[in-house]
Write a structure and sequence with these properties.
The protein contains 3 helices and no strands. With 76 residues, the chain is mainly α. This is CopG family transcriptional regulator.
Length: 76
């Protein structure tokens, strides 16, 4: 997923219990804690992006008819 990307080092503070869970999951999945955090953030940001798209759709509330949808798809 995020392999072979140049990584920036950051420092974060976690509650002890969350760090313990992180250690256990990293061990279970045989990945580093950093790798697991990267995967989790990637998944979380995808989820946030989807939520924003849903909110924007609800705000715009414009529906396309079939002809408009075909034209939209052709533009892609």
């Amino acid at each position: 997923m995020l392999e072979n990307l140049k990584a920036d080092k950051i420092m974060v503070s976690l509650p002890h219990s969350l760090n313990e869970e992180l250690k256990e999951f990293a061990k279970e999945f045989k990945v580093s804690k950093s790798g697991l955090i990267s995967q989790a953030l990637d998944f979380y940001f995808d989820t946030l992006d989807l939520e924003l798209a849903k909110q924007r759709t609800m705000q715009n509330n414009k529906r396309l008819n079939l002809k408009e949808m075909k034209a939209f798809i052709d533009e892609l």
